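Example for tutorial group B:
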């Protein structure tokens, strides 16, 4: 039973030297990371246009009454001061991509700023999926794809900014499976 003794000694050393990571010895997840969106082409032809929705900060349950989930692809325009959310949609083969561009702002320095996009699974209690993507507002289209999304679950994305919360920012974009 030398293995049990060695394993116990290693575990004791980890606990004594570094602990188990969090308060009360509970392991903590690594902080959420962000990724820059890459430059992309133009929106897909013939995609339906959908309005984005006010971001209330509350869960977006599947099968919202009066707001049917959409199929991909769809296009959108945005105009907000703090944040907006998309309609719920079904990912294709566990994947959804969001591409957008910044077209203007009431803040003259917006050209050097970014907006951020998060992907959420709306099934049950909302669950953030993957990394947060940063989109440059330099006038070109930028895109990022989330993979590992749950097929058969409605998802939505949240677009927000952390700079000059009084300034409006606007632009357009699309959501697609590729």
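The residue assignment follows.
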């Amino acid at each position: 039973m030398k293995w049990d003794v060695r394993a116990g000694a290693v575990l004791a050393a980890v606990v004594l030297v570094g602990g188990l990571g969090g308060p009360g010895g509970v392991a903590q997840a690594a902080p959420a990371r962000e990724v820059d969106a890459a430059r992309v082409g133009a929106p897909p032809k013939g995609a339906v246009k959908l309005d984005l929705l006010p971001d209330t900060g509350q869960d977006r349950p599947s099968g919202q009454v009066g707001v049917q989930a959409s199929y991909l692809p769809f296009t959108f325009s945005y105009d907000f001061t703090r944040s907006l959310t998309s309609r719920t949609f079904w990912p294709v083969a566990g994947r959804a991509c969001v591409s957008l561009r910044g077209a203007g702002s009431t803040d003259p320095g917006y050209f050097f700023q970014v907006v951020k996009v998060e992907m959420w699974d709306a099934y049950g209690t909302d669950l953030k999926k993957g990394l947060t993507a940063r989109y440059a507002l330099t006038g070109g289209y930028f895109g990022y794809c989330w993979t590992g999304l749950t097929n058969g679950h409605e998802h939505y994305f949240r677009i927000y900014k952390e700079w000059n919360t009084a300034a409006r920012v606007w632009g357009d974009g699309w959501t697609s499976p590729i």
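The CA atoms of residues 85 and 146 lie 16 Å apart. Compare this with the pattern of hydrophobic and polar residues in the output above.
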